[in-house]
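Hi R.,

Here are the chain sequences for the assembly we discussed:
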Amino acid sequence: EAGVAQSPRYKIIEKRQSVAFWCNPISGHATLYWYQQILGQGPKLLIQFQNNGVVDDSQLPKDRFSAERLKGVDSTLKIQPAKLEDSAVYLCASSPSDSYEQYFGPGTRLTVT
Amino acid sequence: AQSVTQLDSQVPVFEEAPVELRCNYSSSVSVYLFWYVQYPNQGLQLLLKYLSGSTLVESINGFEAEFNKSQTSFHLRKPSVHISDTAEYFCAVSRGNFNKFYFGSGTKLNVKP
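And here is the predicted structure of the full complex:
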């Protein structure tokens, strides 16, 4: 069974530029999560989808971050414009419906200079 | 919002020694509790979980955690660690409904020969 795929693995941009991350969850997993993990901290949930609907986006900075999961499969997280404090690893995870077990992808390491 | 505290950012220990990684959470309501592990250069993976029932839960590789409601703790223990247990361990909580996940800042376990 293929795991959660994320791309790119690394990205370096300048502040005020835009960036997008892509995630393909495990086939059949209805729930998809995006986390931000700043160096030295634990993952912070940004947004959670159930199929193509948003379950929780209470910690998503909506003035600059956006995410979508069209067709309820893969998802894109965008930052526009980026700030220095957005430097972090962005993790995508998925899980089957009605399950607490999340399967994490390898993450995208973003550096904003 | 929930908070999850992992007081020890790093725990060095010799091989075959016992270890305890501490996790405390703040909540006045029922929670579901998890430990995730991240081995070097790998993604996070679920180690064990407490949802209900017995307060002592075990993993397949010898770790165990005990849910203590009165102390709002979910400490992770292993009676004898191996070099291969070297990893970062994250405690996480959810208030239920398969959402609202909060992670601690992680504890790096370094097992020395």
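The radius of gyration of chain A is 13 Å. The first strand of chain A starts at residue 5 and ends at 7.

Let me know if anything looks off.

Best,
T.
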